[in-house]
Specification:
It is found in: Cell membrane. This is ABC transporter permease. Strand 4 and strand 5 form a beta hairpin. The chain has about 800 residues and is of the alpha+beta class. Helix 14 runs antiparallel to helix 20 and helix 14 packs across helix 22. The chain has four domains: about 190 residues, no CATH class; about 220 residues, no CATH class; about 150 residues, no CATH class; about 180 residues, no CATH class. The chain has 24 helices and 24 strands. It starts with a helix and ends with a helix.
Length: about 800
């Protein structure tokens, strides 16, 4: 019996090629979208969950409680030492200074140099007791000895080719390090990867910048975002007890100031998602994508149901004949179920082929920083099987039930148009268009917000500014390079600094103004020389620029207003002490006020900011170009750079490129919604095309009669599309308030954002209407221009 069901189902699918194409295309696109969302969500939910102790591993983080809470993903070495030696609930504790950048020299007959950006970490063997890596050669204990380094397999091959790297030497900052271990390349779903691990006991020799009084070892307040501490507790439920002991110890360490600090533990499972610290994606995004995927698959199912039910008159004789010949309602029900199942299987196969073909494109365009990988076939089979069950139930059950209940008399008289499907079909069509129009509005607003973030004035000049990493440089090297570059015709100004404005990495601390109490709010630090103000175009409102070699400060207007409001005095010429500069407790003088500028991204409000010199911390050179002969100027810049800094490797990046990367998360969201909206539009258009075709077929004789009575092509097209247009307008009325609420809520997450305007909804509604009219127009015109004689011949 099943063989007969399958044979008839295949015959119906082949005979109705046009509608089969519409159904399979819509379902395949929807399934493809769902599989991509599944891959993306599965990747994010699997990050660092494969480690042996992941369920009881926690990150040591820090919170600073001032006028507003500040969250730092880093911890101090002193905190790590306390928790390791004094807290009994801790099984393993590890500390790592991560993502450092160095020039690596490989000695030999042909000495090679490599610039390693954010690839070097300092740690010991306990790091690899917490995090599971594949040790190819050596063991973690090698990192407990000074002078040792462990390389990833990829890095070892990069340096030494096919030679055995064990025992070979690499040189970082003139310090030789012996390769004592090789680990397998880190899996793609981890946030704790590095390519080079240097023993922590080698820190002060390899990077003297950390050797400022060695207070890094003892100061609980010496925090950095790259100072990373993890602990494995004996039981996950011990988290509260450990935090209580940290709370007691910080009271002893900070005394009356302890209220400003707290040291919570962040579960490893939340490390990837908590954007207050280092989380790169919010769980809400995964949930939103899941909802979007379900809505898109629902739209495709609605298309199928609408078209199957709308074909009921075309299949009426078939249903009636089978019933006359003894076919039961259950047999007819099963026939439609098998037909829906076969269509779904074809759509699933096509969707899987689309996923395999489009994965490289998606990785290049959407997920270039964290490329998706095709999961194991067993996991994919589970996902596909679940989708298949949903599709079969969704596409088969309702139409099969509805059509199997048709009576013999109704079927043979072709009188099935009055079945209770009209209202249901309209409700499904409205739902489908509400989703589509809502996605169009969301896409438009997100695109405009991302454009706004990338192009809004951030208070400084980002155009034609090139940044070049320099590493640690001496004062004479800085002076020589600055003077040489200023002589070039294509260069307007030069500045040595720690980092550029609007960077994803910045420093800050509390300040004390004119011998008053320490302020209860933090300031952000723009650490740069006297050329910083000119290079980045910071606009002076009052006073003058800082001078080279002087302990002076520029502050932004927000900070000046806050100090003036609190202390009722002007700021120019007054003393300021800013914690975190290498000059320690020496007070400087405020010499100027500049227009507000953004130290980080415009997602957050512009903070009180300080600009001051601190040559020990400079890691970057910023060069303002004139904009003429840019490439020739950069080539000459490179030549001069390598003459003054022969041990460095030259690389550069424009500031506007760095700023674009600040909004990577928003850009990915924009692209994801954009793709989802595009797929929804295509599926809805296919559905409308199918429906207008079926309506035209069902009303063929009516169209013929109207044409004979003088109806024009336009009038007939209007008649065919009138009801659908009304439903689209109703959908617009429902989608507008829903999308306004959702996008208003989303925009509140940005300190600076666009205002939602009425015309955004107008554009979305008009776009949906035009797309619908184009989808329906061809079939409507074709039906309206058909020869009425042919349509009426049977009468």
């Amino acid at each position: 019996m099943f063989k007969n069901y399958l044979k008839i189902a295949w015959r119906n699918i082949v005979n109705r090629k046009f509608y089969t194409f519409l159904n399979v295309s819509g379902l395949a696109l929807a399934i493809c979208c769902c599989i991509f969302i599944y891959l993306y969500n599965t990747y994010n939910l699997s990050v660092d969950r494969y480690h042996t102790y992941s369920d009881r591993t926690f990150r040591m983080v820090n919170q600073l409680h001032l006028d507003k809470d500040e969250f730092s993903p880093g911890t101090s070495y002193a905190t790590y030492q306390f928790i390791k030696s004094k807290v009994p609930q801790v099984d393993i504790a590890a500390f790592c200074i991560r993502d450092q950048s160095f020039i690596v020299n490989i000695p030999g007959a042909k000495q090679k140099r490599f610039k390693e950006e954010n690839s070097v970490s300092f740690t010991d063997g306990d790091w690899f007791r917490i995090f599971r890596f594949n040790w190819i050669k050596g063991s973690p204990v090698q990192l407990n000895k000074p002078g040792n380094v462990v390389l990833s397999e990829k890095q070892a091959h990069k340096y030494f080719g096919n030679d055995d790297p064990i025992g070979k030497v690499i040189i970082i900052n003139k310090q030789p390090l012996s390769v004592s271990g090789i680990i397998g390349d880190a899996p793609y779903n981890t946030n704790v990867r590095s390519e080079i691990y240097v023993s922590f006991l080698s820190l002060f020799k390899v990077d003297p910048g950390y050797n400022m009084g060695k207070e890094i070892m003892t100061n609980w307040g010496n925090l950095g975002s790259r100072f990373t501490g993890f602990v494995v507790l004996r039981h996950a439920t011990d988290q509260a007890a450990v935090e209580l002991q940290l709370d007691k110890e910080k009271k002893r360490v900070f005394g009356q100031d302890e209220k400003y600090f707290s040291y919570p533990l962040l579960p490893l499972k939340d490390n990837h998602f908590d954007t207050r610290y280092v989380g790169v994606v919010q769980k809400s995004l995964l949930m939103n994508l899941t909802v979007i995927g379900l809505l898109i698959i629902t739209i495709a199912v609605i298309n199928y149901i609408n078209m199957v039910v709308a074909q009921q008159s075309a299949r009426a004789v078939e249903i009636g004949t089978r019933k006359v010949l003894g076919g039961s309602s259950m047999q007819i029900f099963m026939q439609f179920i098998v037909e829906a199942s076969l269509t779904s299987v074809i759509a699933v196969i096509l969707a899987c082929l689309l996923v395999i073909g489009l994965l490289p494109v998606a990785n290049a365009w959407l997920f270039n920083d964290t490329p998706l990988h095709v999961i194991s076939w067993s996991d994919l089979a589970i996902c596909v099987a679940a989708l298949l069950v949903v599709l079969i139930i969704g596409t088969g059950a309702y139409p099969a039930f509805l059509l199997s209940k048709v009576s013999v008399a109704q079927a043979l008289k072709n009188n099935v148009l009055n079945l209770p499907a009209g209202i249901g079909r309209k409700i499904l069509l409205v739902f489908q268009n509400v989703v589509t129009q809502g996605l169009i509005v969301c896409t438009l607003i997100i695109v405009m917000q991302v454009y706004f973030l990338k192009n809004t004035d951030m208070g400084f000049d980002r155009n034609q500014v090139v940044t070049i990493p320099t590493g640690n440089t001496t004062a004479s090297q800085q002076y020589q390079l600055t003077q040489s570059l200023k002589q070039m015709p294509g260069i307007r100004s030069v500045s040595f600094c720690l980092n550029t404005p609007s960077s994803d990495s910045h420093r800050g601390g509390t300040v004390r103004f004119n011998n008053h109490e320490w302020e209860t709010w933090p300031a952000r630090y723009a650490i740069g020389d006297a050329g910083y103000q000119q290079t980045f175009g910071l606009q002076l409102i009052a006073g003058r620029n800082i001078r080279s070699g002087k302990h002076e400060y520029l502050i932004n207007k927000i900070m000046a207003d806050m100090l003036t409001r609190t202390h009722k005095e002007t700021v120019i010429g007054k003393k300021l002490l800013a914690g975190g500069f290498s000059n320690g407790d020496d007070e400087g003088v405020i010499v100027g006020v500049v227009k507000d500028f953004s130290i980080n991204s415009l997602v957050a409000k512009i903070d009180p900011s300080v600009v001051s010199e601190d040559s020990v911390q400079y890691q970057t050179m910023a060069v303002k170009l004139t904009g003429t002969n840019t490439q020739a100027t950069i080539d000459q810049l490179q030549k001069t750079y390598q003459q003054v800094l022969p041990d460095q490797v030259f690389s550069y990046q424009f500031v506007d490129e760095r700023i674009a990367k600040l909004y990577k998360k928003e850009s990915v969201q924009q692209k994801l919604i954009w793709v989802a909206a595009g797929i929804a539009i295509v599926i809805s258009s296919l559905g409308l095309l199918g429906l207008i075709s079926l309506i035209a077929i069902q009303r063929t004789k009516e169209i013929g009669i109207r044409k004979i009575l003088g109806a024009t092509v336009g009038q007939i097209c209007l008649m065919l599309s009138n009801d659908l247009v009304k439903l689209i307008l109703l959908s617009f009325a429902i989608a507008t308030p829903l999308s306004f609420y959702l996008m208003h809520k989303w925009l509140r997450g940005f300190a600076y954002h666009i205002n939602i305007q009425w015309w955004m909804f107008g554009i979305a509604g008009l776009a949906a209407l035009i797309i619908a009219m184009l989808s329906m127009g061809f079939r409507a015109v074709k039906a309206a221009t058909a020869n009425p004689v042919k349509s009426l011949r049977s009468e």
